[in-house]
# Entry
Amino acid sequence: MDEKELFFNHQEAELSSNAVLKLIDNNTKGIAKGRTKFHSLVIAPDPQELKHIKHSPDALKQYTCEVMKVYAQSFKLKDGKVLDLDNLVWAAKLERERNGEQKDGSNMHIHVIVSARDKDQKISLSPNVNDKQRFNRVQFCMKSEQTFDKLFHYQRTESKLQTDQIRKYGTLAEKEQYFSSLETSPDESQSIPQKKLVMDLVQPLIDSPHSNAQNEAANETDYKKRKVLRKKKRNKGPKL
# Structure
């Protein structure tokens, strides 16, 4: 029988659920009431990637720490400061089964929760801001993919994320050049599995109930509207 998995981060190999709750709850200074305390994401390598790392939990945990380092460095602050792993308050847990539909083979993946404030509780950290100059989610995911390749010496046949981006946003010339290079690849006869690592990194940032980009934007707008209305009421004279 497998031992129960505990949470971990770059400093602690084992963290209880209560310890993680305290980490997040004690790092909320400056967060307005009703706003998100933390964000979540899933790191789920595809079958080929899991096979490459020999389905090693330790390797996946090591990679998770590297992904969170990329996450920290992906925030572009106004003063030019670059964040690192030590600036984050986060924890992750390895899961061996998926909720809902099960897939053939290994279902090993990682769930991460990360505070919406930096460790000093001075900087708001939201991957859902609608500003690529602040946090570019596509670049974050592509760098995470590249980190996997470099860390584990993985020879990737095709970047599914890059293919999707070229297909959606590339010029005609870029599309012709890119897809032509894929057709002439020496590995063209190999079947390319659906890329899940980076897509699962992107989707939770968009769809998670704790980190929905549209809801956050709407909340931000509502918050600003309420501030304006309160200000107008204070400045409004008595009725005649």
Summary: Helices lie at 17-25, 47-52, 57-73, 137-152, 160-169, 172-183, 197-207, 213-235. Residues 94 and 169 are 34 Å apart (CA to CA). The longest strand covers residues 109-115.
